[in-house]
Amino acid sequence: MIPPITGRLRKKMWLDASAAFGLSFASAYAYWYGVHLKDLEKQELYYFRIEQARKSAQ
């Protein structure tokens, strides 16, 4: 007779959950600092140039 396997699913679940959370936080961090802030900087520079052109036109 084969003994029942206990606790295996629970251990795998914790490994899967921690890996998923770790990868999601790493991906979010990479997106925020790699893409979002650069786009935000471009947007702010665009509006700054418009503001400077408006001030110089007055």
UniProtKB/TrEMBL annotation:
Its main location: mitochondrion. It is found in: Mitochondrion inner membrane. One of its GO terms (molecular function) is cytochrome-c oxidase activity. GO terms for cellular component: mitochondrial inner membrane. GO terms for biological process: mitochondrial electron transport, cytochrome c to oxygen. It comes from the Eukaryota. Keywords: Membrane, Mitochondrion, Mitochondrion inner membrane, Transmembrane, Transmembrane helix. PANTHER family: CYTOCHROME C OXIDASE SUBUNIT 6C (PTHR28264:SF1), CYTOCHROME C OXIDASE SUBUNIT 7A (PTHR28264). This is COX7A, subunit VIIa of cytochrome c oxidase. The lineage of its organism: Eukaryota, Fungi, Dikarya, Basidiomycota, Agaricomycotina.
